[in-house]
């Protein structure tokens, strides 16, 4: 079942259950996928669908930090629910240890030895971890292993 089909099915289920938070989040995700499909001019591959979901998740996590810093608890709770819904459509995220192992393996593959090789390592590791780990975590892991 494609992501669009899954979103449609879940949207109908949320309507029937009168779950307003899930319904609005699923509608936003459905719109984001549809927009990406229009921009691409073709049906999205599973990798492209994951990229759209990852982007939506990142936007919500960034907003969550801003709302927490501003003390807006009402918005924080809503965003936490939205993040939970978005994550339900993404593949299981790798743990910090799994990310660290993959980053270390990539550092060895590219022969990186210092912080100057940061770009080379990131370029090689991100395709391996795209959609499976948070980019911020990967970035911090690469920095710590190269120092």
From TrEMBL:
InterPro entries: Asn/Gln_tRNA_amidoTrase-B-like (IPR003789), GatB_Yqey_C_2 (IPR023168), YqeY/Aim41 (IPR019004), YqeY/Aim41_N (IPR042184). Transmembrane segments: none annotated. Gene3D superfamilies: 1.10.10.410, Uncharacterised protein YqeY/AIM41 PF09424, N-terminal domain. It holds the Pfam family YqeY. SUPFAM superfamilies: GatB/YqeY motif. It comes from the Bacteria. One of its GO terms (molecular function) is carbon-nitrogen ligase activity, with glutamine as amido-N-donor. This is GatB/YqeY domain-containing protein. The lineage of its organism: Bacteria, Bacillati, Bacillota, Bacilli, Lactobacillales.
